[in-house]
Design goal:
Keywords: Coiled coil. The chain is of the alpha+beta class and 230 residues long. It has seven helices and seven strands, in the order H-H-H-H-H-E-E-E-H-E-E-E-E-H. It folds into three domains: 65 residues; 62 residues, no CATH class; 80 residues. The termini are far apart.
Length: 230
C-alpha cells in the first residue's frame, strides 16, 4: 500500500511521512522472517530519499525568491543589493528581541548606518534601511515601497540637475528615515559648514537642520539653493 502511495503525484514531505508511519507500524522484529527487516531498510532509504528531495526543493524555492526579488528591485533606479539570509539576518527578524538587538548593532558596526539591502525569508520580504528593518508580506507591497523610493531618488536627481554647477560639491543622495519610514534625502554642508538634509515633496523642497528640526518654510528649487548659500 505504501509503495502505491509512493508512486502518486504528492509532495516529497507526504511520501516521507507515509514511509515513516509504515516504519513505526512495523518496528518490531519478526524472528521467523527477514522480510520485515528488508521492508524496514527500504522504508529508511525512502525516508532519506524523499527528505533529501524536499530539502532540495526548498533550496530551489529560496533561490527563485531571491531571483524574483532581485529582478523586481533592478527594475527601478535603486542601488539596493539582495542578500542571502544568514544566521545574523535570521536573528534580526526573529522574535528574540535581545538577539535581534545584538544582530542590529553588529550590522551597524560592520556595515555602517547608511547601508541598505533586501532579502527574502519564508513567506516574507525584508528591507534593511539605515539600521531599521521593514517587513512586507508579498512582492506587491515591497514594489510599492520601491516605487516610492525610486520617485524620491529621481526627484532629488532632477533637483541636482536643475542646480547644475551651483549645487554644493559635497551633496550626496543618501538613505534616511522620516517618521520611521524609509526615504531618500540629499545630504550636504551649508555655507557655514553645518550639516543639512533636503527632501523633495509635491509642494517643493524641505530642509532639515543638524538638530533634526525642519525649517517651517517649503522652498522652490531656486529659493532652496539661495537658502543653502546664506
Amino acid at each position: 500500500q505504501v509503495r502505491r502511495y509512493d508512486r502518486r503525484n504528492v509532495s516529497s514531505s507526504l511520501k516521507a511521512e507515509a514511509w515513516r508511519r509504515f516504519l513505526n507500524a512495523f518496528s518490531e522484529d519478526n524472528p521467523y522472517s527477514s522480510e520485515d527487516e528488508n521492508l524496514r531498510d527500504e522504508a529508511q532509504n525512502q525516508i532519506a530519499n524523499w527528505k533529501a528531495q524536499q530539502e532540495h526543493q526548498e533550496v530551489e524555492k529560496k533561490k527563485l525568491k531571491q531571483i524574483n526579488l532581485s529582478d523586481m528591485i533592478n527594475s527601478f533606479n535603486l542601488d539596493i543589493p539582495v542578500l542571502q539570509p544568514d544566521e545574523r539576518l535570521l536573528q534580526l527578524i526573529g522574535e528574540n528581541r535581545e538577539k535581534a538587538e545584538i544582530a542590529a548593532n553588529s550590522l551597524i558596526e560592520d556595515l555602517g548606518r547608511k547601508v541598505t539591502f533586501a532579502f527574502a525569508q519564508a513567506n516574507s520580504y525584508f528591507l534593511y534601511w539605515k539600521g531599521q528593518i521593514s517587513r512586507f508580506s508579498d512582492t506587491r507591497e515591497m514594489r510599492q515601497m520601491m516605487r516610492k523610493l525610486d520617485k524620491e531618488k529621481g526627484e532629488l536627481q532632477a533637483l541636482m540637475r536643475k542646480w547644475g554647477g551651483e549645487a554644493p560639491k559635497d551633496a550626496e543622495i543618501v538613505p534616511e528615515t522620516l517618521d520611521g519610514e524609509p526615504v531618500y534625502g540629499l545630504e550636504m554642508l551649508d555655507e557655514n559648514g553645518e550639516p543639512l538634509q533636503i527632501y523633495v515633496n509635491p509642494d517643493g523642497v524641505r530642509m532639515r537642520l543638524s538638530n533634526g528640526q525642519f525649517l517651517e518654510k517649503t522652498y522652490q528649487p531656486d529659493e532652496a539653493l539661495k537658502r543653502i548659500r546664506q
